[in-house]
Amino acid sequence: MFAMSYKVQRYVILFSFLTLPLLLLAVFSFYPAVYLAWLSFTSWDGYSPDKAWVGFSNYKEIFTNADIFKVLSHNFVYFIGGIVQNILALIFAVLLNSRLRGRNTFRALLFLPYIMNSVAIAYMFTYVYDAQNGSLNALLTSVGLESWIKSWLGDAGIVNYSLAFISMWKFMGFNMVIYLGALQSIPGDLYEAAKIDGAGPFQSFFYITWPSIIKIVELSMLLTVSGALEVFDLPFVMTKGGPAGASQTFVTQTVETAFNFSNYGLASAMGMVLLLIVVLVIFIQRKLILRGEE
């Protein structure tokens, strides 16, 4: 029997363990991405075997139709909500990293919304925001704030803020857990030394905590940006893009273009444009705002 050297055995084992993951990655990620890019240069209705080549016509339609990019202003509301969400998550992480009585219970309660199904959350808040019998308007009435009562999902001016609040509520616990893990990795000796030197809580945060978790903040912001650009489930389930397209996002518009108007070529081009936007925004964020590896 052929005896393999240690080096050969190591390469065989590495190759064996990598084969299946790389195969799955190629089948379910790389191939769909390449196929999507090819479809973006065609005109296809989704069921016909003929896929007519139209070149850059779909991309020309995207960049000359102002209505397509107008919905990105709706995505911007989710981005603002994501920033607020990260700030609150960091505050709760700092508080729950201290010796607070019942902190494990509070951690579980704050993380609970993240493990809930997004569709279930959407249906739950549909009843909360209901203009006639919703619990939110009932609460405002019971505390004497009738002037604050709104049609939370029917008012074009506030519908995106209502939906962004749900997203903020769902994902804040996830970011809190990430920040909490980063805080617990900071050696306690640093805080003790800073306290001996006369540093207060704010000085310890800005000179010890913040520099130690800046990379985690960068990761969370990358997820926030990509998540804000790819919002789909909440507006799709709760408002169907209404009222009058006020809560339409780029992804819901892409899905509508494909399945409602049977224009899969244009929808594929919109998907590629969204991918390029996400990559561009993340690149700018890293190099200009967060200054990459500095």
UniProtKB/TrEMBL annotation:
Coiled coil ranges:
none
Which positions fall inside the ABC transmembrane type-1 domain? 71-285
Q: Which GO terms describe its cellular component?
A: plasma membrane
- Membrane recorded as keyword: yes
Q: A GO BP term, please?
A: transmembrane transport
Q: Which keywords does the record carry?
A: Cell membrane, Membrane, Sugar transport, Transmembrane, Transmembrane helix, Transport
User: Which cell locations does it reside in?
Assistant: Cell membrane
**PANTHER family under this entry?**
ABC TRANSPORTER PERMEASE PROTEIN (PTHR30193), INNER MEMBRANE ABC TRANSPORTER PERMEASE PROTEIN YCJO (PTHR30193:SF37)
- According to its UniProt record, which protein family does this protein belong to? Belongs to the binding-protein-dependent transport system permease family.
User: What protein name applies here?
Assistant: Multiple sugar transport system permease protein
State the species of origin. Paenibacillus catalpae
